[in-house]
Amino acid sequence: MKKILTNLRRKFGSTYYDQYLWLGIAWSRFKITLNSFSKKGRWLKLDQVMSKKKSDTLFILGTGSSVNRYTAKQWQDISQADTMGLNDWIFHDFIPDILMAEILHDMDYFPNCYYSDLELVLDAYKKHQTLMIYKDGARGKKNLDKLPSAVQAEFLALYNPTVPILKISQIAPAIQKMSKILQQYNHHQKLMIFRKRATLFSAIELAWLMGYKKIVLCGIDLNHGNYFFDEDRNYYESKGFKLPSYTQHVGGHKTNNADISEVTVSQLVKGLNETLLKPEGIKLTVGSKESALAEFLPCEWETNS
């Protein structure tokens, strides 16, 4: 029955996409409102993220193993700009200005390991005054109180509805619609950023909304499943971290595997770049040629050499 309903939904979405897009966004926002009703936790607001903007360049820090091969000069460049770490970036020694973490409470690793890992870095992140963003999609604030109380107090919840995209041809119109909604929305009540496929989509979107002129994607490798902490697990485990052991997928990271979904992260990033960033003169680059995105994005340090 579920498969039949899914096929009907996809057929409707392919035939009547404008209506499907509007209904999908409305439904996602309704679920967030319902799941967040009377729940503890503070919504993230625009002025709180804007307080972290000190330059026109943002380095988005992913967990791909390519960051292990950055030079001292590259890390110096990163430290002199604004930085946003994603998800498991908490294991890295470099502390970012913003942390955006998608915390999946229904996976055994998160309650059994990630919660305590967050507690290990909490003092250092507080000292650095890192803005900690809790991202749980359509669940809104529903599960925020499952975090340890000390950690929970530091996180701000992101209002993060899904933008429905079923196939590659729908990416551009969806991003155009999404950008119009974001420009009209009152982000001073609670910041709204759309989600699709991976945390990276929301991170680039937030960078655009914050007005950055250049966005550099570091450790967003996607063409393999190797994480920076996998190359020296003994070092990170000696610091007390309970590291994840993620399932490896043939053909690259699961979010970039066309066998899993036609709409891959690479396709979404390309759509954001062509539809949203380039028309406004915003430069998007990658930190390493090891990234799958280097097929269509320039490498930051090569273009500056």
Ordered list of secondary-structure elements with their pairings:
Elements: H1 2-15, H2 17-36, H3 46-50, E1 57-61, H4 72-79, E2 82-86, E3 98-102, H5 109-128, E4 131-135, H6 149-152, E5 155-157, H7 171-184, H8 199-209, E6 214-218, H9 233-238, H10 265-277, E7 283-286, H11 300-303
* Computed structural class: alpha/beta
N-to-C order of helices and strands: HHHEHEEHEHEHHEHHEH
| Count of discrete structural domains | 1
Biggest β-sheet strands, sense, barrel: 7 strands, parallel
CATH class: Alpha Beta
At the fold tier of CATH, the topology name is: sialyltransferase cstii, chain A
Radius of gyration: 19 Å
Strand order of the largest sheet: 5-4-3-2-1-6-7
What does the overall shape look like?
A: globular
Mean pLDDT: 91
Strand content: 5-15%
User: What low-confidence regions span 5 or more consecutive residues with pLDDT below 50?
Assistant: none
Q: Helix segment count?
A: 11
The CATH architecture name reads Alpha-Beta Complex
Number of strands: 7
Estimate percent helicity.
25-40%
The termini sit apart by: 57 Å
